[in-house]
Amino acid sequence: MPSRFSGSTALVTGAGSGIGRAVALALAAEGAHVVAAGRTAASLGDTVALIEAQGGKALAVTADVSRSAEAQALVRATVEHFGALDVAVNNAGVFRGGRPLADLDEEDWHTQLDTNVTGVFLALRAQVRQMRTQPSGGAIVNIASNIGMHTRRPGVAAYAASKAAVATLSRAAALDHIRDGVRINVVSPGATATTMSLRPGETDAQRVERVKDELPLGRVSATEEVAAAVLYLASADAASLVGTDLVVDSGGSL
Q1: pLDDT range class, residue 200, cuts 50, 70, 90
Q2: Is 193 within 8 Å of 220 (Cβ atoms)?
Q3: Which among 51, 159, 171, 250 is annotated as catalytic?
Q4: Where is each Ketoreductase domain found (predicted)?
Q5: What is the side-by-side order of every strand in the sheet holding 9-13?
């Protein structure tokens, strides 16, 4: 595969595990210098080690993007270390589900809105402010979910609201900033091979059996498949895609 991101700098939030790590590894494999960001230094260090073991360049930056100062400092650290910010993937998110709305704790509501929506807003704002100063602009992909805009599930009202907000915020921002040279799009994953798609007490093998009948494709998406969608939207291959919401969910929202 051609190195679509050779010489570019990419920032990935929530890069310590799951989809975020897969995106960071995929970007590095195609030539990007990667800043892996998140709240847990140890897991970010593991991501950086994996990239460096493959011959790539990466930097771990601990940051909580739901805090404005940290979101801004993250972008500054990226530019200071690698010289620019060409691609940003806002993947950091949390899930607190399992109860109907009337039984939802306010703390769980605020936790999901603070990280999933405010965190994306603050990171996105800082990233756009940098990218619009660059002659080449930049590309941003925000990670939403098929739960929200595309489908609903019992017991996940707050999560659905937060991810629907990410999709809407992204499309509005895409319209605001395309003339600044910043292209913003969305990937909305469904059930993926991460711990988030496991039910309480469920094993990976049990999930495999459960989704054979639940999902039209008969399996969950691999994190690498979600990463491939992200890289497509961030690349020049998708140069005319603005405000697109690409659903990667094994047909789960059909």
Answers
A1: confident
A2: yes
A3: 159
A4: 8-190
A5: 58-62, 33-38, 9-13, 87-90, 138-143, 182-189, 245-248
Q: What is the pLDDT of residues 212-243, one digit of tens each?
A: 999 999 999 999 999 999 999 999 999 999 99
98 alpha carbon, distance to own chain's centre? 23
Task: Report the b/e string of 123-141 with b at 16+ CB within 10 A.
Answer: bbebbbebbeeeeebbbbb
Q: Judge whether 159 counts as a catalytic residue.
A: yes
What is the model's pTM? 0.96
Provide the sign of the torsion angle of the four alpha carbons 228, 59, 184, 193, taken in this order: positive
Angle, helices 119-131/68-82, rounded to nearest 10 degrees:
40
Looking at residue 197, its pLDDT comes to 87
Closest Cα to residue 189, out of 43, 91, 123, 65?
A: 91
Alpha-carbon dihedral of residues 98, 101, 107, 112, nearest 10 degrees?
A: 70
Q: DSSP character for 115?
A: I
Residue among 247, 134, 117, 92 nearest 170 (CA): 117
Side chain identity, residue 113: L
* The token pair that represents 176 in the structure block: 């605001």
- For 9-245, give the CATH class: alpha beta
